[in-house]
Amino acid sequence: MPEGDTVYATAHRLTEALGGVTLVRVDLRHPRLSTVDLSGCVLTRVVSVGKHLFLRFDNDVSFHCHLGMDGSWRLYSRRPPINHRTRAIVEAPQKFAVGQSLVEMVLVSTKDEKKLVGHLGPDLLARDWSDEHLREAACRLAADPGRELGAALLDQAVMAGIGNVYKAELCFLLGVSPWSPVSAIDPEKAVALARKLLVRNALRPMRNTTGDPRRGRELWVYGGERRGCLRCGGRVHVSRQGTRVAYYCPRCQPGPTAS
């Protein structure tokens, strides 16, 4: 599933390519939206909120979508390939943006965007991030001290933007297993570290949490079951945590493990 940094980068690319441009055609391939006509509108900006995207138009309408498990937006300079997974086509003179496998597609008044994402915790990539956001996210994280940390980090109602990759890397950097209770860590430290990692990677072509640019050494434990832990060289274990996979190094991350 695309994580917050991927969605943020998608919003940035779409805005760079189509922001301020008068659109020739907007084809939204959803039964409720198939008759909507946004041709002649200007795409003012695309914004991300956690894992959600809003394409804002100059008529005070926003197109909301979520990338789901494998959704994406791609840009083309010529007529793009279209298939059964295509859900949105935004066309401008000599430019096309195509949304594939999008979910939660809906049009709303721009002023009502909050109604669709009001249930989320603070957005870790919010442009106006402040100490108040940090404290709120930390408070939400600490609200259930006995909850498994890995599950709490993935809860978008706690803070928005973390997916399975960052869950694994955060737990590693905090020095505890994903099954450790939230009470085992400092909530404010965890939130600050989460934001630091997402901001650092927001516009990078290749996600990196280690600071090591060499190929294959970008992530501490995620996907490292064959390579091993980059810190101690020990085996990286892979187990299920709820419905998701959890990667961890038992040497570097003491604490409870999968039952």
Structural write-up:
The chain is α+β, with helices and mostly antiparallel strands and 259 residues long. It has two domains: 114 residues, N-terminal domain of MutM-like DNA repair proteins (Alpha-Beta Barrel); 118 residues, Orthogonal Bundle (Helicase, Ruva Protein, domain 3). A five-stranded antiparallel beta sheet has the order 1-3-4-5-9. A four-stranded antiparallel beta sheet has the order 2-7-8-6, with helices on one face. Helix 3 crosses helix 6. The longest helix is centred in the N-terminal third of the chain and has 15 residues. The chain starts with a helix and ends in an 11-residue tail after the last strand.
Order of helices and strands: HEEEEEEEEEHHHHHEE
CATH topology of the largest domain: Helicase, Ruva Protein, domain 3
Number of domains: 2
Largest sheet: 5 strands, antiparallel
Number of helices: 6
CATH architecture annotation name of the largest domain: Orthogonal Bundle
Q: Which shape, going by the Cα principal axes? A: elongated
- The end-to-end span amounts to 25 Å
Mean pLDDT: 97
Radius of gyration: 20 Å
CATH class of the largest domain: Mainly Alpha
